[in-house]
Structures are given as C-alpha cells and as structure tokens.
Amino acid sequence: MANLNLDAGVPGQVASASSLRADLGEGRSLLVVSGVARPEFGIDDDQVHREVCRVRLRVPATRIEQLTVHVGPAAFSNDESAYVFATDEASLEIDESGELVLVAHLALMGESSTLNRFSYQVVCIDHALATEVTGTLSWPTAWFRPASTDPASLAGAFDIEAKAVRVTGGTMDELTFLAFGTITGVTVGDTTTTATYRVAGVPVDTLIEIVVVARALEPPGGAGARMLPDPFNVARFTLSAAQPTRGNVNFKGVKVGGPA
C-alpha cells in the first residue's frame, strides 16, 4: 500500500537516512542529507499516474540560501507491460517545526507497476537567523536598590524567559520554555531603577511570550510585587525571517496586595 507521507524518523519508511552538518562560519552551515525513501507506490493501469511524496527528513534548518536536490528511482517492478517510472521534480521545504521536508513528484504507468523506493540527496546551505528580543525592566528604587550598575548585581533578582504559546481557547494558554534572558545594563535613579535585558535564540514563526518574575522587589507595607508588560499586550508576538528582532518589550514593577 502506498505511503506518500514518509518520515525518516519512523522505522521502515526511509532506509539509510543520514545527515552531515559542517559549520561555515557567520551563522551558516553546509548540510548534506541522503537516504532511500520507500513509498511503495503501485498501480495497475496503462495511464500515467502522478503523485506527490513528502519525506520529513528530521534535519533542523532555519533559512535555506542555496541548495541542490537529487532524487532517482532505486527499486521498481513491472509485469511485462509498457511502463513509466519517473521522479519528475523535487524541492525542499522547511515545515512548521523547523525541519527539512523533501517534496518529490512521482510518475508511474504499467500493468502492474510499483515504484518501491527512490534515493535522494540534498546539499544546501542553512543560514541561522540571529533572533533577539530586547526591552527594559523598571521599578521604584525604594523597592530594590542594586549594589551597583554592574548587571551582575541583579543576579537572581529577576527570572526572564521566552516561552512558546499554545492558545487553548480556555482560561489559560499553555506556555513552554524556549530561552532565558539576561540583564545587559542597569541605571539606578533616585526614584526609578531601570535595567535593560536581551533574549537571544528565539524561534521564528512561533507565537511567543516574554515572562518576567521579580525575586527581589519589596514594596512597603508587606505587599508583594509583580513585573507586568508595559503596555499590557507588548509581551506576546511572533518573530519572522523578515523581522527576526523585537525591541521595546518593556516591563514595570507593580504592587500586589498590602495596604492601598
């Protein structure tokens, strides 16, 4: 039975799957991917049948700059009739999970005929995007005065995380950790202290949310404190290949509970 959606990570669907990645510098990598796909595409007809076979290669990539793709029949059969066995066209895609997908256009004719397997080789240059999110954290200096303007003075004071968002439609969406943020600068004023932060390596085409947890803020009167986006909707967004950075994702400290 034909299987036109193959996965190199599933036993029996792709044989001899292998890949090689070589660092070319400046965020570029040379990828060489090869294997033998097993669609078992069969017909019993003297008319040409055409199908598209997709092979998930299980090789991560970000942005393909140059590539060559080669496919060719590796095993086929025919019961002594006129026949056609062809891999007419091949292309490469990156799916929503950030992995390479080979797309092969197959053609078959014969009574009966089967294109059991086809081999493939992909050679490409992958250029990883330098994604980045930046912003500020601000709070009343009376709640927490850093010992200095060295970013190390805020070690442990805040947890900054980028998280992937899965919208559930319920009261709370599901958040999955992606990357930590780091403090890059501190300005201590008489009334307000501001720290700049940076989160790198955030994936593109993924809805993300920046979450900041305050560990060191101590408002007067025994109240608690939270870091909230300023404005409230600034912390949830999606980066893209065209716009791989986002700035001004700012947060401010607010008092929670305690006397008004």
Describe the model.
With 260 residues, this protein is an all-beta fold. It has 2 domains: 5-127, no CATH class; 132-255. The chain is 0% helix and 64% strand. It has no helices and 16 strands. The mean pLDDT is 90.
Nutshell version of this structure?
The chain has strands at residues 5-7, 14-25, 28-37, 41-60, 64-78, 84-94, 99-127, 132-140, 158-166, 174-188, 192-200, 207-214, 224-229, 236-238, 245-246, 251-256. With 260 residues, the chain is mostly beta strands. It has two domains: 5-127, no CATH class; 132-255.
Q: What's the total count of β strands? A: 16
Distance between the termini: 71 Å
**Main structural class:** mainly beta
Question: What is the number of helices?
Answer: 0
Quote the average pLDDT. 90
% residues in beta strands: over 45%
Pick out the low-confidence regions.
none
**Radius of gyration over C-alpha positions, nearest whole angstrom:** 27 Å
Share of helical residues:
under 10%
Main beta sheet: 9 strands, mixed
Shape: elongated
As for the number of domains, it is: 2
Q: How do the helices and strands follow one another from N- to C-terminus?
A: EEEEEEEEEEEEEEEE
